[in-house]
Design brief:
Distance between the termini: 18 Å
Strand content: 15-25%
Largest sheet: 4 strands, mixed
Number of helices: 13
Structural class: alpha/beta
Helix content: 25-40%
Strand order of the largest sheet: 20-21-1-22
Amino acid sequence: MTDSTLQMTYQIQKSNRRLHGEITLAGSKSISNRALIIRALCAENFPIHRLANAKDTELLQQLLASDKIVRDAGAAGTTFRFMTAYLAMQPDTQILTGTERMKKRPIGVLVDALRQLGADIEYLEAEGYPPLQINTPKDMGRTRRLSIAANTSSQYISALLMLAPTLPQGLELQLEGNIVSRPYIEMTLALMRHFGVQSQWNEQTIKIAPQDYTPREFIVEADWSAASYYYAMAALAEAPDVQLNGLFRESAQGDAVLATMMTAFGIQTEYNEHGIRLYKKEAPLPPAFEYDFLECPDLAQTLAIVCAGLGVYGVFTGLQTLLIKETDRIAALKNELAKVGVSLAALPPRFAQKSGKAFYAIEGQAVVKNAPTFATYEDHRMAMAFAPLAMLGDIRIEEPEVVVKSYPDFWEDLEQLGFAVQPI
């Protein structure tokens, strides 16, 4: 992505609120990235079909194939975390770096865990943050027991789990505290099972014995988080009828809960041989929509837009990991929703007395006029989550090409559904 494309703004228009058409979604970035790491750890190569065309996935492929000493993960958080664990087992010295924003995203929890396993990793700038110098491991696998905070990024945990069967003693991973993003950990273990690696998960402990990955042909399922933007459009549309190809009824993705979640807004999901069909069952809107996004944080921005667009009072919790994503997504949502007259605010602590959770309220109905311009904060999900508001009036999206991180064809696919997308 060049500076010129980042500085561009798109105007998004929809002449009516009809939403009919068919979209073939690209493969899931989350599944693709895990499959690539597993293949790199496998003794033999194997084919991966329908691999995500996301920039993060293409970057991970390049870094895995690179023989350069300095490897740049850009703004790709998953890529950086998975590569940190992978390189920790490799010989010679490697330097792993990223963008200025990446240098502000913590990596200390993963580095501390890898060091306990025998990795030799140094911080080149700020302690606990990228860039890293990763040297030949001193005694990789010198322990098989490891504890890690369970309320940290699930990507740290997934990175360690994928490494586990290749360690001399395997790994017994103790998750301390409340587990966040559990479905992503389950996705990792499910993919590992597909490639022959067995595990045991009892309460807070995951045990994986030393064993070999079995090379097997693999087909990547389409991305449910990408599908969420079409669910949002359908919610704001009149009599929508949209076919989304590539999604499975039996999914390894936690975001597949979307199909159930969106019934609150009348959106029905019909599974077929190619994927799913979305349509709307006319029914009164709920007075409020309350949801805990702890296990599906990537859906929170989309559902915030659905609530705002329909004027449904939203009460969200489980948003703690949104603070350390590509941007502070809570602050970003608050800033941008205000442009259409919708507020997002933390509820007073008394609402969390029993649960100990932090609650946020979304209040008001979006008024889209005079083509509001939404900032994206170098965050692909901000760009895509706000796009459905074009169903209600002309909007503008700054730095629209940030979507290449996970869904490069997003704007072209919108045009297939009758949106006009023009650079200004």
